[in-house]
């Protein structure tokens, strides 16, 4: 069977379990061939399908996320190593970086704090964006931090990125020009897709009965951590704008919404 035929057949099989069956099939075929998806589409469609493709396809049929199967995920201008134990970066989270770029321009912030950095997603994207910046990434998971350290080394920013275990910003005594944070915000009773609920770490997803537990813990520390002219970009879930705005406004912070490409309020911009 040729690659194009195998991809088409795989997309039909994945239509039962994936919302993006054709894309998933192409990414898995590219992984099996050891090439990028662009090369697959441009020059490999008439090649013989590799024998390793079926094993990858079965893993996806069982619900395993494509990013865990391939071990990588693109985010902003970088590619990150990802794996079980760390939340997979989502395109919607790029809204936080877009907001920061709009605010700081090319000059950028000097010091950056990423609360809940996971595999280094927001911190490393920001450091790649602004070569003159340095920052700290905090996470409660050593597994996630191990991924973040490998990503920082591979991206050549390890000397500018301090990655430490921590409980949000509690042990940090410094002010930052830019604070980035994508905390858990899913309600405990939420019905999530299998590839999320069965594979991604629940501690990075769920935040109490109303999804707001971690915002309640984060909000009191932001005024202390944020430099006078700095901003904090905080990700929120669908329908959470009003409730989370109240929590941060109660700490004396100004709050502005930022919409993602789908038009949903995805980010709150905080300032003094």
Q: Please state how the strands of the largest beta sheet are arranged side by side.
A: 5-4-3-6-7-9-8
Shape: globular
What distance lies between the first and last C-alpha atoms, to the nearest angstrom? 61 Å
Count of domain modules: 2
Description:
The chain has twelve helices and nine strands. Helices cover 38% and strands 19% of the residues. The strands form two sheets. A seven-stranded mixed β-sheet has the order 5-4-3-6-7-9-8, with helices on both faces. It has a two-stranded antiparallel ribbon with strand order 1-2. The protein folds into two domains: 3-62; 75-271, Vaccinia Virus protein VP39 (Rossmann fold, 3-Layer(aba) Sandwich). The chain is globular. By secondary structure, the chain is of the alpha/beta class.
Task: Chart the SSEs and their pairings.
Blueprint (H helix, E strand, L loop, with lengths): L2 H12 L6 H13 L3 H8 L8 H9 L4 H5 L1 E4 L2 E4 L12 H11 L6 E5 L5 H9 L4 E6 L2 H13 L6 E5 L10 E6 L12 H4 L15 H6 L3 H4 E10 L5 H9 L4 E6 L5 E7 L1
Parallel strand pairs: 3-4, 3-6, 4-5, 6-7
Antiparallel strand pairs: 1-2, 7-9, 8-9
Helix pairs in contact: 1-2, 2-3, 2-4, 6-7
Keywords for this structure?
single chain; 272 residues; alpha/beta; Rossmann fold; two-stranded antiparallel ribbon; 9 strands; 38% helix
